[in-house]
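Late entry, written up from scratch paper. The run itself happened at the end of the previous shift, but nothing got recorded in the book at the time, so transcribing now.
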Amino acid sequence: MRLVRCLALAAGLGSAAAGLAIGPAVAQKRGGTLVQITQPEPPSLGSYISTANPVGQVAAKIYDGLLEYDFDLKPLPSLAESWTISDDGKTVTFRLRSGVKFHDGQPFTSADVQFTVMEVLKKVHPRGINTFSEVTAVETPDAQTVVFRLNRPAPYMMAALSGYESPMLPKHVFGQGDIRSHQNANAPVGTGPFKFTEWRRGEFVRLDRNADYWKPGRPYLDRIVVRFIGDTGTRAAALEKGEAHIAGFGAVPYNDVKKLEKLPNIQIETKGYEMLSPVVELMFNTRKPPFDNVKVRQAISYAIDRKFVIDNIWFGFGKPTNGPISSNFAPSGLYSADVMNFNVPDGVDRANRLLDEAGFPRKADGIRFEITHDITPYGEEWRRFGEYTQQALARIGIKASLRYEDVATWLKRIYTDYDYDVSSNHLFNLADPVLGVHRAFHSRFIRPGTVFVNGVRWSDPRADELMDRATIEPDPKKRAELYAEIQKIVVAAAPLAWTHEISFATVLDKRYRDVIVSPLGLFSSFDRAWRE
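Output as recorded:
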């Protein structure tokens, strides 16, 4: 029964997608160059090994995935034109689209899917390690059929098959050599609508139209140029003058967003982040004193004035939070507000009491201890957030020095060397907590060298057990109960201090149409984008 329903669903989605995604052009025009501002410059274009935000903004134009998604997060066909799921949920069969070619002219086949999942995503992708953990084999009965064999059901996997999250790689290119340091990481070869052409370090990446793209007539644009502009004022000025056409993820400071939205040639778009649900956090190195003491971590959580941060640093683009799961999951029951509440009026008093109890009294100069705060190297908001936390911690007797490094150095410091006290960050919840939340504090994700996972090195057997059960629990009510308990445990342990949910704003030149057409926004392929 389930097999039949899934077949019908897949067929229905395929028909819908044919009309929505690859129908004939009506008003769209061919030609033009879209200039995208991405900040900071990505450390590489290997999106199969790094989920760093700037990497995804570029690589998602080059690599396709098996599926795409609508704004309700429902899967749509892409490289896979249909799929079926067995009754026991342990076999997923994809029918691949025929006639698809990589940018070097070689055909895309089931062997490429098998290689990508089993040899790349399962082994080196920061989130793929979790997403595909239940996949025991990928079988290839013919060139256009792929069968995923799972140890246990993994329904969340179907939400993680976009070109951004699970890029399909050519086996004949990436199958040779060490995938972690592959020579084609920065000369990517995909099946996507745009081909990599040039990377001039410190200036831009140029992507040209793939004339052989499998969606007839697409892409409409001739070229995408991704510019890297260090100065925030110059970024805003480039958009104002029409020299650049799109920027998001805080590349334009929010005070400038407020100014730009008044211009007749600019629109501000907040759609395109539905599949991300970013939550801002302070990370504590929980294996290093004094942050191995839960009372110290709780004290800092109490000391943060979340409303002040949102109003004065993110200009109102945010919502206070106490925990790791975004309130966007409230309709599904997976979000719980029944957790320890650090967002209280007397937070500073509580913080001071906790630090006294933890054995860190103020000395004669009023300072309890000194730390270094490594700021996320993603722009002005993060610098100002660092400056704010410095002031907030000073109020409770903690002297914080700020350190701002380039992305590659910061990533290595936090996720490889663990050479830090406190850092700031924002993690995406993605389409399911299994994909975006577990990685932040499940013991399995303490993996040196893997970025954006459990960099705080916090470990709790009970929380691990609950997350493992929630991963495969099919009953929505029971799953919600599990996540309620998970949130209660994790928030009280405070391995991170969650401050707010970001509401990102994309600045877009009005001459460009159909640019934000996916819940992945800037992480999508732009194959439908066109210029008036």
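Residues 1-25 have pLDDT under 50 and may be disordered.
(Scratch paper discarded after transcription.)
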